[in-house]
Amino acid sequence: MKQLHERITSWGDKTFGPPETRSPLGPLNHLIEEAYECIDKPDDGYEFADCLILIFQAAHLAGFEYDDLHDHVVAKMIINEARKYPPVEDQPKDQPVHRLGRDKE
User: Fold this and answer.
1) Fewer Cβ atoms within 10 A, N terminus or C terminus of the chain?
2) How far is Cα 58 from Cα 28, in angstroms, rounded to an integer?
């Protein structure tokens, strides 16, 4: 995955410009568009690939490299795993599932 990340960010720097000349907001706004395409075509792996490419590129432009992302994901999963969620049988099939107590923060 690290090599893939380096391939994506190298290509992105050459194609769209490096962090010194680009903001992460461009790829993040593009990600919103791609997320809607995933909603329309959830069986199309290329749409998910587009999202991952844009996440890697946006994070790179924001100053986060692969090891940073990896460490943040590991830390965030520890947080998520400690949270409480509704029982699986009570979760809606096609809607977001939020942690319990989220609305109290």
Assistant:
1) C
2) 6
